[in-house]
Amino acid sequence: MRALVTGGAGFIGSHVVDRLIERGCEVAAVDDLSTGKAANVNPRARLADMDIRDPALLDLADSFRPDVISHCAAQASVPNSVSDPMRDAMVNVVGGINVCRAAEQAGCSQLIYVTTGGALYGDPERLPCGEEHPIRPVSPYGVSKWTLEQYLRVLMPASMGVKTLRLANVYGPRQDPNGEAGVVAIFAARMLRGEPVTIFGDGEQTRDFVYVDDVVDAHERAMNSGESMTVNVGAGIGTSVNRVFETMARETGYEMAPKRAGERPGDVRHIYLDTSRARRMMGWQASTTLADGLRKTCRAFR
Ligand SMILES: NC(=O)c1ccc[n+]([C@@H]2O[C@H](COP(=O)([O-])OP(=O)(O)OC[C@H]3O[C@@H](n4cnc5c(N)ncnc54)[C@H](O)[C@@H]3O)[C@@H](O)[C@H]2O)c1
Fold first, then answer.
1. How far apart are CA 3 and CA 102, in angstroms?
2. Residue whose CB lies within 8 A of the most ligand 1 atoms, among 12, 47, 297, for a mutation test
3. What is the average pLDDT value for the chain, to the nearest integer?
4. Average pLDDT over residues 70-89
5. DSSP labels for 120-165?
6. Per-residue pLDDT for 118 more than 90?
7. Which atom of ligand 1 lies closest to the CA of 119?
8. Same CATH topology for 2-168+211-234+275-282 and 183-206+238-272+287-301?
9. CATH H-level, domain 2-168+211-234+275-282: superfamily
């Protein structure tokens, strides 16, 4: 099987590439290395340094003939989407449409769209947030990721399996501290250097932290499923930022108290995802405990 992974040099994409290689797939990673690193890419995959908006993506897909495209590339930073919404839309929407065209033209049997759950549902009306929760993103990033979901619905032929994975806050080795959900990566980097760590607000705000290996498992199950689907992928549990801080401080031997700063405008108070659809449709549920995931992450950062 041949797989083309956009964003294959990034945090999540590079783990997807590793798993596909492990399973014996031939893999091409497409990445413009804007936030990703060539060093993240498995040496058994080929890396095309290319922007997903480039029309040459169609030629690449045409000659590589992937069975599946996993679309992980994105402008994935919420703050950057606020400061430069135009670029965010160009990459996440226009680039995404180019990926759809490449998938169709190359005759792929499926497209996996890696997108956000955390930035889609806004300030939740009810918890946990299921896929049917009203969509009301509060950042340009949430809007652009949602817009591509809509394009997939209207652009992709019925014969193509479209698997949309709405991810919670993913953490793990190789995460860039500047990404969408960089809190774990930021804490790990700063704690290990003995630098001050800042918690915004009272730290009792909760997020759904899911370990990257669990996400890769969900990706694999989605790929092996014959059905199109839109599913939340998260731990299904809300964990406070204070708890993450305490667990990581223990893990790294960090003894400084956190610095406190004001709440960030636009931050939702509590969010975690209902993952029962993923369990029903593909028998997946997150299996890594927060303690184990944070331990592995701290070790990798060390
Ligand atoms: N990390 C999270 O918690 C999280 C949560 C929800 C959704 N997501 C989604 O997961 C996907 C991967 O995110 P990540 O956390 O690994 O971030 P990342 O920044 O590490 O990965 C994104 C990759 O896309 C590449 N890229 C960006 N613009 C590109 C372009 N125009 N052309 C080609 N490549 C380009 C980057 O170089 C990078 O390697 C994204 O689609 C993101 O929206 C991430």
1. 13
2. 12
3. 96
4. 96
5. TS-S-SSSSB-TTSPP--SSHHHHHHHHHHHHHHHHS-TTSEEEEE
6. yes
7. 6
8. no
9. NAD(P)-binding Rossmann-like Domain (3.40.50.720)
